[in-house]
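[SOLVED] Need 3D model of a two-part complex

Original post:
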Amino acid sequence: MTPLGTTPAADPLRVAEAPPPAPGSAGIGSTVGSNPDSPAGLPPGIPPAARPKRPHRRLRQVVWALVSAVVVAAFWSVDISWDSLGHAPARLVHYIGLMFGPPAWGQLPAAVSATMLSVAMAWFGTMLGIVISFPLSLLATRGLTPVWVRWPIRGFFAVLRAVPEVVIAVLMLSVTGLTAYTGALAIALGSIGTLGKWGYESFEAVDRGAIEAANAAGASRAQVMRWGVWPNAQPDVLAFWLYRFEISVRASAILGLIGAGGIGKMLMDNIQFRVWDVVGMLMITVVAITMIIDQLSGMVRIRIITGRWDLPFAARLRRRRTARATASAPDGTARAAASDPAGTANSEDRRKAEE
Amino acid sequence: MTTFPIAVPPPGDAPGIATRHPDEHRPWPHKPRTWPRALVIAAVICALTAWSAIAIQFDPATLIRNAHNASRTLVQLFQPDYTFIPDTAGALLETVQMAVIGTAVSVALALPISFLASRVTNPSTVVLGVARFIMNVIRSIPDLLYAAVFVTVIGTGAISGVFALVLFDLGIMVKLISEALDGLDRGGQEAALASGATWLKADRIAMLPEVAPSYISQTIYVFELNIRASTVIGLVGAGGLGMLIDKVRTFYQYHYLSTIILEVLVIILALELLSSASRKRLLI
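Solution:
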């Protein structure tokens, strides 16, 4: 190791890898020692530029600079007095104490009946949305209808999806007044957008074979839809109808907050009158009811798709356990397969968050 | 039922057939009897629908009775007043500011929390369970409810909106990022741990670069969600376009309302195009 004596011994691996210096090039060691660019631990004989340069990505730098500028500008220009932020955590803790210490369980029966109204709103809205969107999404399916029918309907779906449900509800106020009925209609309109899109997407994804067979047997357009498309798409369509109902349950709670009745209205009234213990109880109720309905509807969805009765959270637990078991095994392919359902769950959550 | 031209042998023709089950000479299998089950399901669905219709006091007559009123509103709605656009600039700016700040704060907070909430990067079961539980609770409360509570606790304006957005995004971000972490290959991390790195260092060196693309893509996605959400949360007083919507709605200025909605539509669609384009670039 004497020829390498100039390098610190902190990095034995790299020292061992270094090629032995050629005899007669004894001067190199001294030049490296004096080279300020040489990183510590680099043995003599390897020029300082041995590592490839980092790629220079101009576009990426520009985008980063722009994004940072926008963020800084937003913080700097927004109408918020940042110095008052110091009190916020203490106040938050205070209010959380008021809400949950303890929640007013005496009001639970009223909360449950208000929740039932919310669920009724969601159910009715979803049913109405299904009844309207189903024929429309058939008409929007590629291969079944001409372009001039398809695109206007798709545009209609896109517009309905882009407008938040709450805004639709605000628009409908003048027609029906602020009632649970308005909420249901708003949910119906909102669900036409998503259901319509999911509908034509799954109709387009069906196997062409059955459609061709129906065409070859001389079926009319309606018959092609009934016997070529529907049997194939049915499980998916039923599953996402239920899935949309889950989203509608959340939406109906939100619509209540702007006055459309149900649990949301009860929450809003109690927030405005600052009855915090009731608010805490209502929050727990909303979360619990949403979770229960998700599980029930998820159970039916799993039954439709896989043919087994299974609670979603139990299925997820089992999936995780198998994923963990296979992760410890050396075989990487089994693990990849186990993590795939998690990927679909991921996209579901995204969908749900979008509503 | 159409009759099929396939020859069905009469029972007496072939010897032995009459002794079998009367249906067995059919050339196609017997259709399973599903109608009782279908009937039950249909009855349940009808009952639920009837119950919900009664509960919400479904009444098509109201719609017709208010048709005159509605038609006037609709006429106003379809004549958006574009001169109103300059007046919306302030609220629009506030919406975008809230969305930007909310996204920035929440993604900054979400990164360490998602490392805590993923089994792959957090060796401690207790911390993992606590982090996941808290995030589940935070995620299950809708954004508008956060906004309503913060408006009462902190006060009207953008600050409540930012708080609501941060909490709302945090739930989504942590869930998506920690699941992305769960699906990662642990080779680099194991190598780092084997060479004596602490968990913190191993996660930083081996896992962070791997999760970075999906982190950036989810950030864009959350920003998109925020623009949508921040137009809505103003309806309960949390600043931005929603507050303006609430104002013009109380004064029945529907031609202004439709202008605002058009603006929201344009922004959301533009943002969707931008984000899908940039996410595609990230993934390739």
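Edit: Chain B touches chain A through 70 residues (CB under 8 Å).
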